[in-house]
Amino acid sequence: MAHTPHELGAVFSKDADILHRLKMNGGHFSTLSDKYHTVNREIHRIDAEVDAASDERMETLKKERLLLLDEITAIVNRARDDAG
Questions:
Q1: What stretches of 12-84 show up as alpha helix (H) in DSSP?
Q2: Contact at 8 Å (CB) between 40 and 6?
Q3: 61 occurs within a structural domain
Q4: Residue 80 near residue 19 (C-beta atoms within 8 A)
Q5: What was the pLDDT predicted at 4?
Q6: 7: in domain
Q7: Could you tell me the residue range of the domain that residue 29 belongs to?
Q8: What is the pLDDT of residues 32-82, one digit of tens each?
Q9: In degrees, to the nearest 5, what angle opens at C-alpha 10 toward C-alphas 50 and 40?
């Protein structure tokens, strides 16, 4: 599949090392990252009309992605503050 918008590496392009370190540590961040990836890919497939979904389903997925991104952002910000 072509480039998928909203990938964490693109969202946090300046924090690639932090993302890698957090993901390698496993735990909660790794779980959040995997879930974000799954939800983001599903949204992309619906946008690309590869998969069908109702407007309600799409809205639910976008809200879930946003909640995950908020939590991931907080973790990345804490890691950035700890490193700096």
A1: 16-24, 27-47, 55-83
A2: yes
A3: yes
A4: no
A5: 78
A6: no
A7: 15-83
A8: 999 999 999 999 999 999 999 999 999 999 999 999 999 999 999 999 998
A9: 35
